[in-house]
Design goal:
It contains one helix and nine strands. The protein is mainly beta. It has one domain (about 1-45, about 50-130).
């Protein structure tokens, strides 16, 4: 869970340096509360202009950790098992228009994604599919 919270900090920050240490409560220009900035992935990697939520999942079979990021145009999946070298695995695109809010929750091995966009409904993603993504 610590890696997932760290990733939230990473994604929402705009620091371009990898492994920025937390000194006197700051990692670069951001409050860090004792956490070092391990890595950074710009929104352009996800082909979007912004994000709005994040959640995480730990694979019960192998212990790998994943960040699930709500984007304006879909949901991104990132392997953060090595937080210094996160791996962007892919994106579940929205089935409607871009949206300001996308909310993700995980129960067991499934991610449930909702949005305020008209007609969006709920997307359900089987997270065990991430085990076989080659990237």
């Amino acid at each position: 869970m610590k890696k997932i919270m760290l990733f939230v900090f990473i994604v929402y920050s705009i620091v371009n340096n990898a492994q920025t240490p937390c000194n006197n409560g700051m990692a670069g220009s951001y409050p860090c509360n004792g956490y070092d900035l391990q890595s950074f992935i710009p929104f352009s990697t996800f082909n979007t202009s912004g994000g709005n939520d994040s959640w995480g999942w730990t694979d019960p079979d192998d212990g790998n950790e994943y960040a699930i990021m709500g984007l304006k145009n879909g949901t991104a999946f990132i392997d953060i098992s090595d937080p210094i070298n996160p791996v962007y695995l892919g994106k579940l695109p929205t089935h409607t228009s871009n949206s300001t809010w996308r909310d993700i929750k995980v129960y067991q091995n499934h991610a449930f994604v909702v949005s305020e966009a008209g007609g969006h409904g709920m997307q359900v993603f089987d997270l065990t599919r991430l085990r076989n993504v080659a990237n």
